[in-house]
Amino acid sequence: MSVTDALKQKVTSVTETAKIADLQRDLIDQSKGGLTTDHGVKVSDHDNWLKVTDGTHAGPSLLEDQIAREKIHRFDHERIPERVVHARGAGAHGYFKVYDDKASKYTYAPVLTDPSRTTPTFVRFSTVQGSRGSADTVRDVRGFAVKFYTDEGNWDIVGNDIPVFFIQDAIKFPDIIHAVKPEPHNEVPQGQSAHNNFWDFVGLQPEASHMVMWVMSDRGIPRSFRMMQGFGVNTYTLVNGKGERFFVKFHWLPELGVHSLMWDEALKICGQDPDFHRKDLEEAIQSGAYPKWQFAIQVIPETREHDFDFDILDATKVWPEELVPLEAIGEMVLDRVVDEFFPEVEQVAFCTSHVVPGIGFSDDPLLQGRNFSYFDTQITRLGVNWEELPINRPVCPVLNHQRDGAMRHKIHMGTVNYTPNRKQEIPPVPHSEGGYYEYVSTCLFTIVADPAYELQLPRESLGYEAAPARG
Ligand code: HEM
Q1: Residue closest by Cα to atom 39 of ligand 1
Q2: Hey, whose CA ends up nearest to atom 29 of ligand 1?
C-alpha cells in the first residue's frame, strides 16, 4: 500500500459510527482470494469462451460454457432505472450531533434532544433535471437528502438547496417535472432548467415565480456541495413529551458559507470537468477537510397556525426569519467517502414519510403527496425489499409481519406471520415503550393530537392497544 493510500484510508475512517460498523458485514476485501463464479466455483480462464474448432477456423462459441454465459448474463443486467428526478448525484457518510437538549421543549425525539448521541448519517447531493451522466455545474436546483440512522429507526430529511418549491400541491409534480426535463420530441436540453417548455409552464403557473427567482439567481449554480445551504422545504411537526405539537422547518447552514459559480465559469467547467462537484466532495473528505453544516429549526406552535398573513403550510413561501427566528441546535459532519458508488449512492433511497417518534407531518399538500410518492418510486427503482439493502437498513431492530416479495433477504424463524396471533409474537409497541404516535383518531373528521393518549391505552390480553373510543 502506498503512503498516499495508507493516509487516505486513515483519514477516511475517522468516525466508526453504528452504520459504518453495520456495513462491515457486506464489505468485500478484493485484495484476497482468487476468481470464482457467483455460485462460488473457482475460475481458471476468464478470457476465452469455449469454442468448437477444427484446428483451422476459430469456430463458434458453445452455450456449454456456463462460466462465459454467467459473465455475460450478469453484465447484461447491470443497469437499474435511474431516479425519475435527481438522477445525478454524489454521496458521503457522516454523523450528526445536537449541542444540548434545548429542543426538548418541542420534541421528545432523542436524535434532536440527546447531546450524548452521535447519529450516523448518509447524505446524497444531486441535481434535479439531468440524467445520471449529466454535468454537475448546470443551472438547476440541488437535492440535499439526509438519512439519519437513529436508534429509533431511520429518519430522512429529503431537502433541496432552495427553501421554497415550484408548486403548492403534489398533484402538479408530474407537470413541473415534465416541463423542466428535456423536451419530449427531441430529449433536449440535458441538465439545463431554462428552456421553452419550462418557461411555458412557469409562465402559466404564477405560484412557481418565487422558486424561479431562486433558480435563476446565483444560487442556481453552486460552487461546491460543501457550500450549499439545505432546506427541508416542507413543514413537518414536532411533538414534545406533553403531547404539544409544533410546526417546524429544517435548515442546514454550511460552515464554509454559501458560494456560487459565475455563469461563464460554470459553462466552462461543464465541458472541462463534468464531475466537478462529486470530485470536490470526495477530495475534500479524503484530504481531511470535512464538510460541516449547522442544523437549525424554525418553530411555530400549532396554536399559532393562523396568526400569519400567509399560509404557513404553503411550500412556495418561506417563513421570514424576523418573524420565526432560526434556532441552531446541532451540526453534521461528512467524514467518509463511499467504498463503492452503486451499492451506496445509487441504491440509497429516501422517503419523506420516514420519521421517528417525536417528529411528524403537517397538512402541507406538497408533503402529503411526497409521503406517498417516494416509497412508491423506490419499488420501481429497487424492488419492494429496498429497505433491506445495506445502505438503507436501519441500525436498530426491524421486526414485523411484512413478508416475501422479490429479493427477500431476511429469514424469520416462527410459524405465524399475521396479527393478532395466539403466540403474541411481534405485538404492537405502546407509546410509553417507544411506539410511534402523533395522532389519535377520534372520529372520521376530527383528528387531533391527544396528550392523554398514553392514559387511554390499556394493553389488552393479547398485548394490543385498544382503539381509542370514537366520539
Ligand atoms: C419540497 C419539494 C421537494 C423536494 C425538496 C424534493 C427533494 C428530492 C430529493 C433531494 C430527491 C433525491 C433523493 C436522493 O438523493 O436519492 C428527490 C427525489 C425524488 N422526488 Fe422529490 N422533492 C420535492 C418534491 C417532490 C414531489 C412533490 C414529489 C412527488 C409527488 C417528488 C418525488 C420524487 C421522486 C419520485 C424522487 C426519486 C426518488 C428516488 O428514485 O430515489 N418530489 N426529491
Answers
A1: 83
A2: 370
Sequence-distant (≥ 6) Cβ neighbours of residue 271 within 8 angstroms: none
* Ligand 1 centroid distance, CA of 84 (Å): 9
Q: Which residues are catalytic?
A: 86, 160
Strand partners, 51: 61
- Domains of the chain, with CATH numbers? 34-78 (no CATH), 89-388 (2.40.180.10), 413-471 (no CATH)
Which atom of ligand 1 has the smallest separation from the CA of 376?
35
* CA–CA gap between residue 122 and residue 344 (Å, rounded): 9
> pLDDT of 149-193, one tens digit each?
999 999 999 999 999 999 999 999 999 999 999 999 999 999 988
Residue 160 near ligand 1, beta carbon < 6 Å: yes
Distance 403 CA to ligand 1 centre (A): 27
What is the tens place of the pLDDT at every residue in 7-65?
Answer: 555 444 456 899 999 999 999 999 999 999 999 999 999 999 999 999 999 999 999 99
Cβ–Cβ under 8 Å, residues 222 and 126? no
- As to burial, measured by CB atoms within 10 angstroms (0-12 exposed, 13-18 middle, 19+ buried), residue 265 is middle
**What angle do helix axes 173-180 and 196-204 make, rounded to 10 degrees?**
150
Q: Ligand 1 centroid vs 172 CA: distance in angstroms?
A: 13
User: Where would I find the H helices in 307-346?
Assistant: 341
User: Distance between CA atoms of 238 and 102, rounded to whole angstroms?
Assistant: 13
Residue range 130-159: mean pLDDT, rounded: 98
- % of residues, the chain, pLDDT over 90: 88
Q: How many residues does the chain have?
A: 471
Nearest alpha-carbon partner for 439 in 225, 218, 245, 201: 245
Atom of ligand 1 nearest to the CA of 91: 15
Three-state DSSP class for 66? Answer: helix
- Could you tell me the distance, in angstroms and rounded to a whole number, from the CA of residue 399 to the centre of ligand 1? 27
